[in-house]
Design a protein that fits this description.
By secondary structure, the protein is an alpha+beta fold. The protein contains nine helices and 13 strands. Helix 1 runs antiparallel to helix 5, helix 5 runs antiparallel to helix 6 and helix 8 packs antiparallel against helix 9.
Length: about 400
Amino acid sequence: MNPYEKKRRWKFFLLIFAILIGIASVFYTDSFVKKMEREEANQFQLWVKIQERSMFLMDNDNFTEIVESVRKNTKTPVIVVDSSEHITTYFGLDSNKTNYATDTKLVYDSLYFVHQLGKMKAQHRPLDMNILGTNYKAYYKDSFILTQLRYFPYIQMMVIFLFLLTAYAAFSSSRRAEQDHVWVGLAKETAHQLGTPISSLMAWTELMKSKFDAEDDPLIAEMENDIKRLEIITDRFSKIGSKPILEDHTVYIVISNFVDYFKVRTSDKVKFSITGDDQVRAMLNIPLFDWVIENLLKNAANAIENEGSIAINIIENLAKEQVFIDVTDSGKGIPRSKFDAVFQPGYTTRKRGWGLGLSLTKRIVENYHSGEIFVKDSELGKGTTFRIILKSSLTYEPTTA
């Protein structure tokens, strides 16, 4: 299992664990809410019975104290209506809307009563009341505390989720910064270590040319090309972590020069082609951009098992002043579910691969060239197309008739 798969599995386990905690919290709160619902229903029934008997025991001081005690401890809003659905009494509603003073008299908000009665009818069935031979219906709704408790687990889960999201972002940012620091140090140290053997190889080739009179020897020329390539690679590593200098270049020429170098070092069974606009220009750092093309071509060549082709098409988007570079191979393809995963550090399908090529490619395109790179299209058994989007260095003025 590669590091990417391990990281994804841990994320999956943590997500399942968080979901289980959330479900447990919801179930526990729900059981507590149901218990409070039963208590409020019992309290409401007690209130109805006391109201029915209060007219008969008005002169009983002990009963009067009980009535007052029940009323003070009842947190449930109540509305009583007669057989014609007219409100006769209420309890526990907002006093600012049920009875407020004007300059001449006390008035009430009738729409408030209608709204509250509608909510009570929607929540609970009424209880019948009989006071002095007259039938009434008593409605009630959940108390404010009970209503809060219904939403509490969801608010709790949201707060926990936001906290975990913030913590995850902070830790990820810190870990990424630490990893970047390690990679920058490793890259610069690698560039420093390569400097000495490269200088030695350059001296040895000059010595061979002079000793064996091999100025025009094609093998020496190829050795010099490889040494120059090593110099470019060293320059790439030395630029990691530093802001590269971008210069205006013709995209077709830059890509064509690298493909000429790369294809002679690849199997003859892989055919290369470059098509599209050969005049479009973009701001590039050639050593780093060559690295992008190299990684894409290496992945394309590795995806081709026997014979195949790699095509590069350069397209100019005049409307958005962008350059599209499509690299298409006829290899084994990528599953759609892995389109984003291929750019993750550590993701690889090769036994000896490190899974860093496309990750570095994405960083070079997006961070250093302010562009985009993504899998445009892929089909298993038929091939894959990667698209690079760069900002054109040419400004286009719209033509007017």
